[in-house]
Amino acid sequence: MKRYILPVLILLSVVLTSCEDVIDVDLKQGETLLVVDGWVTNQPGPYKVRLTSTAPYFTNQETPKVTGATLIISDSEGVTDTLKESEPGIYLTQHLQGKVGNTYTLKILSNGEEYMAQTEIKRVPPIDSLTVKYHEESAFYEESGYYIYYNGPEPVGIGDFYRFKIYQNDTLLSGPGDLTFAEDKLVDGNYIGDLQMNDDKAFRKGDTIRGENWAITEDNYRYYVELSAQINNGGLFSNPPANVRTNIHNSNSKGKKAVGWFGGAGVSSKEIVIQ
User: Fold this and answer.
1) Is residue 189 part of a domain?
2) Is the Cβ–Cβ distance between 129 and 271 less than 8 Å?
3) Whole-model pTM?
4) 112's torsion region: left (phi>0), alpha (psi -120 to 50) or beta?
5) 171 belongs to a structural domain
6) What is the H or E stretch that residue 224 is in?
């Protein structure tokens, strides 16, 4: 019987190869939308708003920058600031100073459309300290090295929302696994000790690490929940892709839509050098 195995395999290979069809999928490009990425914080300005536009899914190029727009940010104290385009698609405030408790309205005039967004700067607790622990590679740690831990109070009163950022030698860790955010529902008013900040990447001796706590709005928190769900939406049981919410709205309900986020945040930070 063995002498028949090779001919059968050859025949099967020919049959399977002959059944292959090359299918060119012609996807509609869809409408080009404005993409907004901007922040105002309690830290000294200038504050930056980045404008780009959407691009076709299979475009292997940087998304187009939106130039020549007019951007104005006004706050609840009556201060108005017209942003200056410092480089293509990057707009900077000139004198605005963010304050905890203030609300901020962004107006964008671009390509005949007017867009509006509003946010506020929330209270932020201080970071008491960052501590360092060394761990060997294991089922709990991706690699051997140093891991950073957050220590600080959480103010009394449910309704605080946070995003945690970490910088290694002045470079923000911005991979999919670095999007870390939380709400205070289960820790309200308690001291947060030994909260691990880095999961996917271990640090080395000599690294300068800066940890930041961004106190964000609840709507911004929900945006991150939806964004994280889309980033991690894969595998056999993945859900159909869905649009993520935005707080950028066209003043004309029949005008072009926009995507992205204009956010406000109270920011506290702490820095440590791993010895």
Assistant:
1) no
2) no
3) 0.84
4) left
5) no
6) helix 218-231
Kindly state the DSSP code that residue 63 receives in the 8-state scheme. P
CATH assignment of the domain containing 84: 2.60.40
What residue type is 192 in one-letter code?
I
Under a CB-based contact definition with an 8 Å cutoff, are residues 103 and 75 in contact? yes
Which of 262, 263, 254 has its CA nearest to residue 113? Answer: 254
Q: Count each helix (H run) and each strand (E run) in the chain, helices first.
A: 2, 17
pLDDT, tens digit, 9 for 90 and up, residues 15-74: 444 455 555 555 566 688 999 999 999 999 999 999 999 987 666 778 899 999 999 999
Q: Give the tokens for residue 165.
A: 């950022």
| Residue 86: burial class (beta carbons within 10 Å; 0-12, 13-18, 19+) | exposed
Q: Rounded CA gap, 165 and 167, in Å?
A: 7
Looking at the DSSP bridge assignments, the partners of residue 105 are: 74, 118
Domain count, the chain: 1
Within a domain: 270: no
